[in-house]
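EI: anyone free to look at a 164-residue chain?
SC: sure, send it
EI:
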Amino acid sequence: MVGERWAVRQPEFPAYFAYLLAHEFGHATTILTRLWLAIYEDMILRYVPRVAKGQAWTWSDFPHEVRYDRFGMAIAEAIYGRERVVEDFDRILTAGLSEDAPRLVKALALEPSTDLGPLPKELATFSIPFRAELLERWQEDILTKKLKLGACLSDLGYLWARDE
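SC: here you go
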């Protein structure tokens, strides 16, 4: 979500704001076109840190966040050009304005893309090592009503059964 902090700074960092807004539009596109995938994104984001013990996770470790960062970069660059995007990001990093500087550095290194098509495969590949434990936890939490979103899926294993 684009908060007030960056919304009020849009005139100062227009390319960065375009990146943020486009990133969120990437999420919205998935929700509107493949709700089942958005549900998996949320469940994987919340449950992988629980089942992958001993690992520290950041938002930018998850494939859907990377894909939406790529989407945001593509839109920002299409509107403002690469030079302005880099300039805005650099000014934010230099001024210490970001709460997640490593993510901004990662985003700058990404290949921009508006293609959200590979997302199901990327999410499935990323989460396959945790599949068994995820399914077990999801089933338990659906039964105890701790995971209401998961109940919307007719087949909890659908993400990994797809051929895309």
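EI: The chain has nine helices and no strands.
SC: 👍
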